């Protein structure tokens, strides 16, 4: 185990959105998640073979938590990790291209032992997104690992990046060595919202001040990622 200072410094450089850890993940709540498989990924063995990982499933089911927790785990065994949402990856390229530093930003995404690209499918991506993502995937292929999360079927990726042929090229490279992990079940965010709402309703009505209980809007249903169809195609 490496020194805590070094681990903390590398975790900060990894740019994680959250301090997610596997010990905090609700495996008992979401039984669709293969615990043994997650911990095997957290051991870092897949990095030695430059294997890629695709986590797919509905919004709110814990994909980002698991991906970042695996990132934290492999940092503790010496791996260099960088985390970024797909939207921010593209924004990096757009900004640096305008400033004439495209190669510099590309290097940032090629160097880490593990690159985690999160939130594929959350929103429509800017023009030329496919070009940037293809360059990353192609250059890292069989050299260093990429982990991606998505809530959309693979056939939707062309629409998301506005480039159907580009999406096909990306997936052709990525799926050659990608391990697919399905994460389904109920939304953690919905669970927490229900718990919070229940806590408000059950709160004692004293002392003198009453806070109005706001009715939470129901979360819209989200489309499930058809992972079984993905596995057949890959």
TrEMBL record:
GO MF assignments: ATP binding
InterPro entries according to UniProt: DNAC/IstB-like, IstB_ATP-bd, P-loop_NTPase
Pfam families xref list: IstB_IS21
Alphabetical GO biological process terms: DNA replication
Domain IstB-like ATP-binding: 2-195
Full protein name: DNA replication protein DnaC
Gene this protein is translated from: dnaC_3
């Amino acid at each position: 185990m490496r020194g805590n200072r070094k681990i903390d410094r590398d975790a900060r450089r990894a740019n994680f959105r959250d301090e997610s850890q596997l010990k905090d993940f609700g495996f008992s709540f979401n039984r669709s998640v293969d615990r043994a498989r997650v911990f095997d990924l957290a051991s870092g063995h897949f990095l030695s073979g430059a294997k890629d990982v695709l986590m797919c499933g509905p919004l709110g089911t814990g994909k980002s938590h698991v991906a970042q927790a695996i990132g934290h785990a492999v940092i503790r065994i010496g791996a260099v990790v960088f985390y970024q949402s797909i939207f921010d990856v593209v924004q990096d390229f757009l900004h640096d291209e305008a400033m004439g530093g495209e190669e510099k930003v590309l290097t940032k995404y090629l160097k880490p032992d593990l690159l985690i690209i999160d939130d594929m499918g959350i929103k429509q991506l800017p023009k030329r997104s496919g070009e940037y993502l293809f360059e990353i995937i192609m250059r890292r292929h069989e050299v260093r690992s990429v982990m991606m999360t998505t809530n959309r079927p693979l056939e939707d990726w062309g629409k998301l990046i506005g480039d159907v042929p580009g999406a096909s090229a990306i997936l052709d490279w990525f799926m050659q060595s990608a391990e697919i992990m399905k994460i389904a079940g109920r939304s953690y965010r919905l669970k927490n919202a229900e718990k919070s709402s229940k806590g408000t309703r059950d709160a004692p009505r004293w002392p003198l001040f009453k806070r109005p209980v706001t009715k939470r809007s129901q979360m819209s249903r989200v489309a499930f990622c058809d992972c079984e169809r993905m596995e057949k195609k890959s």
